[in-house]
Amino acid sequence: MKKCFGRDWVQGKNIIVLGLAKSGLAVAKLLVSLGAKVTLNDKKAEHDEEVIDELKALGVHVIVGGHPQGLIHAGIDMIVKNPGIPYTAEPIVEGLKLSIPIITEVELGYQFTDAPIIGITGSNGKTTTTTLVGEILQAAERHPIVAGNIGTVFCEKANNARPDEILVAELSSFQLKGTIEFRPDVACLLNVFPAHLDYHQTMEDYITSKGKLFANMGEKDIAVLNADNAACVQLAQTIHAQKVWFSVEQPVECGAYVQETDVVYTQADGHKEKIIAVNEIGIPGTHNLENALAAISICKSQDVPNSVIREVLSQFKGVEHRLEFVDELSGVKFYNDSKATNAQATTKALASFGDPIILIAGGLDRGVDFLELVPLLKEKVKGLVAYGQTKEKFMHIAKLAGLKSIDSVDNVREAVVRATEMADLGDVVLLSPACASWDMYASFEERGSIFKESVHKLKTSPH
Ligand code: ADP
Fold first, then answer.
1. What pLDDT, on a 0 to 100 scale, did the predictor assign at position 195?
2. 387-442: per-residue pLDDT in tens?
3. Ligand 1, from 121, 322, 376: best to mutate by most atoms within 8 Å of Cβ?
4. Pocket residues for ligand 1 (CB within 6 Å)?
5. Residue 266: beta bridge partners?
6. Predicted model pTM
7. 292 CB neighbour count, 10 Å cutoff
8. Beta-sheet pairing, 357-361 with 324-329
9. Closest CA to 78 of 20, 31, 23
10. Which residue from 171, 173, 189, 339 has its CB within 8 A of the most atoms of ligand 1, so it is best to mutate?
11. Which pairing describes strands 332-336 and 324-329: parallel, antiparallel, or unpaired?
């Protein structure tokens, strides 16, 4: 199918790049290299001078410190926005009024590549599944390039990809909302839970953004979907691609599912085979089993041999900050799940353990009440240490759950010390904050690293 905004189209066009983050920088450089006239605009005034100088030297018109009047006008051919910029931002509103195509760099990546694309999205589990698929395809010598929300700019990777390579893209709903023609060969929706409602405003808008992953797919393409997630099942009715399912709860007609103690895969023609025993999979928890099933369904669509899938699944130990085992001190195991930035992720983490848990939780207040955590707090959690903007809310739900040990502290370092005091032999201390980190820490990575450092410090200097 002919692409409308390909490399030839870009030449000589007036393009505004909104937002000078890592992706904005890559997009601006790529577009000037393809002959576009690029203006890069960022509301923020402070930026790395070297970066600005580099862009200027390449011929990019750089405007920082606000959105000037007249920036968006009828002569602009396209706006490439940073995924995080809301659609209520002034230049986007102006662009919409003038019917200027407004995209994210994911669309550009699609326009500029001939390599096949596997796109993976969902509220939770994207990075784990994307990494797993990348590792399986790597082991099968299928030349994967892992990119997107996971940390490398998709359009840059896509522009350089050879047709015999496979782009494995982690995609957020923010990125997908800004796509027009984007059409992956294989697309996977892991799950949809209420999340990011501060950005999307409504659940419907959020589901619609996720659905954009499948919007342009045809019968030759493959949609991998979670048969246990209501939103996936609902969305499936609108998808034209071949459907491959995965499920931890029920057999599926075509796809990967759990049968007693094994993971099996049924082909479209009904042929069924065992892939791996559930207890051979290296990553803990039912949620990770779901991620493994999704990865199996995706990799089977690429004809990866079962032996390779089995080998990688049994070796894979998960991704940093996602239910990552940190250490064991005096019979207490410490797990870092700093990436759990919503209640659903924390629910999954709590459900993964059989041992009593001391939970460390709290962070940015996005206006949710966390009441859904109460049943699992009752069932699995022995003590709670809260910190951050939401600490009162966590203290409240811990009281509702009838926990005996509840405390609040000022930061993650103090939380580790307090949680260790609460823990007995055989317990688990789990950082699974259920909140974003930005009230106190630059990122979930920083928060998780501080947790790990604090645990290691306890080991070297027990108090
Ligand atoms: P994402 O990239 O979508 O944020 P990650 O793989 O980084 O997902 O995992 C983020 C958090 O979500 C982890 O802390 C984990 O506890 C939880 N999680 C992972 N996979 C799933 C899943 N399939 N369903 C629900 N929660 C999950």
1. 60
2. 999 999 999 999 999 999 999 999 999 999 999 999 999 999 999 999 999 999 99
3. 322
4. 122, 124-128, 190-191, 287, 290-291, 322-323, 337, 339-340, 344-345, 348-349
5. 255, 272
6. 0.84
7. 28
8. unpaired
9. 31
10. 339
11. antiparallel
